[in-house]
Amino acid sequence: MKKILLVMTAVLASMTVCAQQIAVVKGGETKVYNTLKDAIDGAESGSVLYLPGGSFPIADADTIRKKLTIIGISHKASSDNVDGRTTISGNLFFDEGSTGSALMGCYVTGNVNIGLKSAVNDFLLRYNNLNSVIVKNQGCRNIEINQNYIRNSSDMGKCNAKITNNILHSLQNVNGGTVMHNIITSYFTIRYSSVTINCYFMSADNSVISNNVFLQSSSSFSGAYYWRQFLGSNNEVMENMLCNQNWGTDCINVKDDWSKVFEKNAGVSTASKYHFIDDYKEYEGKIGIYAGTGFSDDALPPVPYIKDCKVDEQTDAEGKLKIRINVKAMTE
Asked: How much is the pLDDT for 6?
């Protein structure tokens, strides 16, 4: 962390007078770019891209085909961060050559797509707010999705994804993966023959699904609707919390309204507060997002950011321009 702080303090100082510049760091060398496309194109494989607060558009054609770690300030606007949150406007595509890449601390208006034509392995998504995650290639391995807000249904492409401590909509096509300590807020709706089927998982196979909270209640559906927890096979399902239904072994069947279980249930939103209250406090360290490795309410990646800065209006007698920067360091 000390090394990152020293590097980023120097980088931030060089970027202060020009808003929304992206620092690309590799082997102690730093280059600065004005657009996300230019930063991606100019970065060597293995580089770290530091995005300040602001909006960075990207086109679907700008596929990432190298190992890159992209780190934003946060997907939330902090009260003491002068630049606000880091927003990537558009979809991100990671394909052949991008194995080992990571995305942290960003609000992405679109989807994160992984493995378009070739398998992408050892990929990390952490501290982001995303529309969805779409794994295109079933040969992808070791996709880790941790502590994100995922606003719509995601497709793991039958890969062995590890999905932990997220607030998310719903999932499909997990094979040989791990789904633990998540808040799962919604469901898939599919038509089979003349019946409408609602399910949390569609095609989840050979996976561990445990210690999650499923917010939807099967009692909401009637008539032509039919409720299924999942469509799949050979899953190890245990110690999940559900409302008015049973699924797997040792499940917790909640009879109360969720308002009596959590501080605030607002779905996939930073307004949600999924800490247990009252009679359910005993589950805080066992079930849901604060169990296991835990969930960061701040969603701050391990990178410093500028709290405030002051630039003199004119140079001094020696022609030097004074810049004073107050940097806050975050640790992981």
From this structure: 44
Residue 51 falls inside a structural domain: yes
Local structure of residue 43 (DSSP, 8 states)? P
Cα dist from 204 to 2, 196, 218, 243, 249, whole Å: 42, 19, 19, 21, 17
42 HSE (CA, 13 A, CB side): 16
- By the 8 A CB rule, do 51 and 89 touch? no
Q: What is the pTM of this model?
A: 0.84
- In this prediction, residues 22-46 reach a mean pLDDT of 96
What is the secondary structure of 151-209 as a DSSP string?
-S-EEEEEE--EEES-EES-EEEEES-EEES-EE---EEEEETTEEEEEEEEEEES-EE
Q: Which of 265, 306, 292, 259 has the alpha carbon at shortest distance from 278?
A: 259
- Does residue 41 sit in the same domain as residue 116? yes
C-beta separation of 153 from 135 below 8 A = no
**In sequence order, what DSSP letters do the residues of 272-319 get, joined into one string?**
-EEEE-GGGGGGTTTSSTTSTT---SS---S--EEEEEEE-SS--TTS
Is the model's pLDDT at 325 over the cut of 60? Answer: no
Range of the domain at 122: 1-147+296-332
Spatial separation of the C-alpha atoms in residues 193 and 188, rounded to whole Å: 16
Same domain, 61 and 197: no
Pair 111, 207 in one domain: no
Tell me how far apart the alpha carbons of residues 306 and 16 are, in angstroms, rounded to a whole number.
9
| Total residues found in the chain within this entry | 332
Decide if 152 is inside a domain. no
Residue 304: predicted pLDDT: 54
How many structural domains does the chain have? 2
Domain assignment present for residue 154? The answer is: no
Pair of tokens at residue 268: 């996939």
Residue 196 shares a structural domain with residue 282: yes
CA distance 92 to 102: 12
Same domain flag for 61 and 110: yes
Dihedral of CA atoms 239, 243, 247, 251 in degrees, nearest 10, equals 20
Does pLDDT of 250 surpass 90? yes
